[in-house]
Design goal:
By secondary structure, the protein is mainly β. It has no helices and 10 strands. It has a 7-stranded mixed β-sheet, with no helix packed on it. Strands 2-4-10 form a 3-stranded mixed β-sheet, with no helix packed on it. The two termini are 22 Å apart.
Length: 138
């Protein structure tokens, strides 16, 4: 499947269900006129085992964030310091649960104003070929 999201104000939202076995999602480089691609991934509950490999090509860095209150992981939204937006991220992947196993031990921890909400942020740096792989298993 190939999706195109071009134009500064163009946003494309796609929902993909992952079945059993091995699945791959490959996201190419951001172009000057790229819009924003939002991918909502659903790992099917009735499947015993499912694996998803997500690869971002031609990016320097990106981040995975896990919101413990909402029980949602976003991949590609932030980069580096928690206050910086990732200019390389033109695609954001959303998954239910803490699929990247983020915790206080392996991530930056940000507490909400109420003290009960917690956000974990983990930054990924590209390999020498400009690729970032994130593997998710159910």
């Amino acid at each position: 499947m190939e999706f195109e999201s071009s134009g500064a104000l163009h946003v494309l939202w796609v929902r993909i269900a992952v079945s059993s076995g091995e699945s791959r999602l490959v996201l190419g480089p951001k172009k000057a006129d790229s819009g924003l691609l939002l991918v909502d991934i659903i790992m099917k509950e009735d499947q015993e085992k499912a694996n998803l490999s997500i690869m971002f090509r031609d990016v320097a860095s990106l981040s995975a964030t896990y919101d413990s209150c909402m029980d949602i992981t976003l991949v590609g939204l932030l980069s580096g310091d928690a206050t910086e937006m990732d200019c390389n991220a033109w695609a954001v992947i959303r998954l239910r649960g803490n699929v990247c196993n983020l915790s206080a031990e392996n991530s930056q921890l940000i507490k909400g104003n109420d003290g009960s909400s917690v956000l974990y942020i983990h930054s990924y740096t590209a390999e020498e070929l400009g690729k970032i792989h994130i593997d998710i298993s159910k």
